[in-house]
Amino acid sequence: MTQMEPVIKQVPFGEHFDYPADRPVTPYERERRELLARYGRFARERGRQLTSYLIQPAGATDQLVVELFDTTASQLVVTCATLQRDSGGAGMWYAIGTLADLARFLPAHTRNVLVLPAQPDDDLSGLCAIRSITPVWPADETTFTNHQEQAISGEPLFYPNGEPSL
Q1: What is the pLDDT of residue 149?
Q2: 140 Cβ contact list (under 8 Å, min separation 6)
Q3: Could you tell me which residues come within 8 angstroms of residue 112 by beta carbon, excluding any fewer than 6 positions away?
Q4: Are 69 and 55 in contact (CB under 8 A)?
Q5: Closest to 66 (Cα-Cα) out of 40, 45, 90, 27
Q6: Which of 7, 56, 80, 157 is deepest in the core (most CB within 10 A)?
Q7: pTM (2 d.p.)
Q8: How far apart are CA 77 and CA 14, in angstroms?
Q9: Residues 6+ apart with CB under 8 A from 25
Q10: Spatial CA neighbour of 7 closest among 53, 55, 66, 69
């Protein structure tokens, strides 16, 4: 019998990730995991409640993993260890697709956050804005920033094709 509804199971953040034990960890994946751990520490230090989810879509045999969900701010967080669009299947396009896939199973008011290794260029920032994704990147070893934080500090936002309509 086919399952008619997705099965969503909440699990503690950091205890379950989709890391196959039989495959070697690539340099990209190592960097992505470290970025995820750093962001998790940053969020917890600010009093955020973090969790993870295991999702089995209706009728599917695959299991999707939400590695980090910030329940305090209702944010789905995905990490990407590169600013390249397509980096052997692990670039920005993949991360944006992951956000879109996972967001379907979470409450409609959930905000999408993409943690990057550095500030994205204007074009990638515009792509994120159009997709309603907040890019976040390390400001230093222990803190993260985003365009909103920079706007508060006085740095103007720039969108190469004009202000996106959201």
Answers
A1: 64
A2: none
A3: 75, 76, 78, 99, 103, 131, 132, 133, 134
A4: no
A5: 40
A6: 80
A7: 0.84
A8: 13
A9: 19, 33
A10: 55
Q: CA-to-CA distance for 103 and 13, rounded, in angstroms?
A: 17
R_g of the chain computed on alpha carbons: 16
How many residues in total does the chain contain? 166
| Total Cβ atoms within 10 A of residue 99 | 21
What confidence tens digit (pLDDT) does each residue in 31-73 have? 999 999 999 999 999 999 999 999 999 999 888 999 999 999 9
State residue 133 phi and psi, 5-degree precision. -115, 135
Determine if residue 14 is left, alpha or beta; phi over 0 gives left, psi from -120 to 50 gives alpha, anything else beta: left
Which residues have C-beta within 8 Å of that of residue 117, sequence separation ≥ 6?
31, 35, 80, 81, 82, 83, 137, 138
